[in-house]
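$ fold --in a.seq
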Amino acid sequence: MSAERPPMNRRHFIHVLAASGAAMIATNLPGASAAAAAPKAAAPKPRKPVAPAMQRELRNQERSLADMLKVVRDYELPAGSDPAFTFRAMRARRGGR
């Protein structure tokens, strides 16, 4: 006695279709692989040198950010203080969109 299979859903059908198509291509093209069939990416363009003023400003911003993070991390919260927020997981909505 064999149980009857339920009809295939769309997502599973597309997955099977893509896998069978890839298998057909791989078997019909001897020596070809997916990597060989993919187009080659263009070589990255060489970067222009950064101006000294820009480098100085970037270092200044990095230093400023590091100082701000140090202040925030070193701040001591009073004992027993309430948290800023409370995370509560929500149930997923079911049904149509």
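$ fold --in b.seq
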Amino acid sequence: NQASASYYNVEASAKTLEKQIRIIENNVALLINEISHTIERSEFRECKNPESGLSKKISLAALANRPDVKVAEYELSRNFYGVNIARSALYPSIKLGGSIGWTNNLGVISNPGSLLMTALGSLTQPIFNRGINMANLKIAKAQYEQAMISFQKTLLNAGNEVNNALIECQNSTDKQLFRKNQVIANQQALENSMELMKYTSSTYLEVLIAQNALLQSKLLQVADWFEGIQGRINLYKALGGGTE
């Protein structure tokens, strides 16, 4: 009865795994714009370590691919140029040309004094509006500082996500090493149990227990491997599309 119960438990577990496989295959087919179909896969023993080739150190410049970092960067640039524009509005667009004298976009100014004294002259408006322009400059500087803080915060958040993904990958690598040894130990325990059943008074129940322990360790090994793959995916997303 115990053997039968163990058998049916394994059969039920297999059906659960088959259901998960079908669901994942349907999701993958939808992702690549195809009808649902069976996807050929390699054996688990043929799968490579998902951490192979993974660098443990990633440059901060790699975060520039992230959309949120790009938005913060563009916002910072926009406010930087906004400060320069606000500063340039403090001075009239009159140039000093040495022997040429006072000039503007229209040419040489014959009487710059009268022009500077004309309140309605477009070139002198920044002088009379200096108070407004100074206020605009202060606002632009404040917005630039705010954009700088936002950019720094975005970088910190992005770096934290990358660090978490790296920790997930590295932790999975360490777990897989221990899990591999666990599978080997359970395999040896199963072989020993079968030998004991042949030559001693040990019962087949001990063999079933050893088989169950081996099966559970293999399932955990697959789960750890999947966790490593998921960590690589999370790292790819955290880097805004991966790095070369």
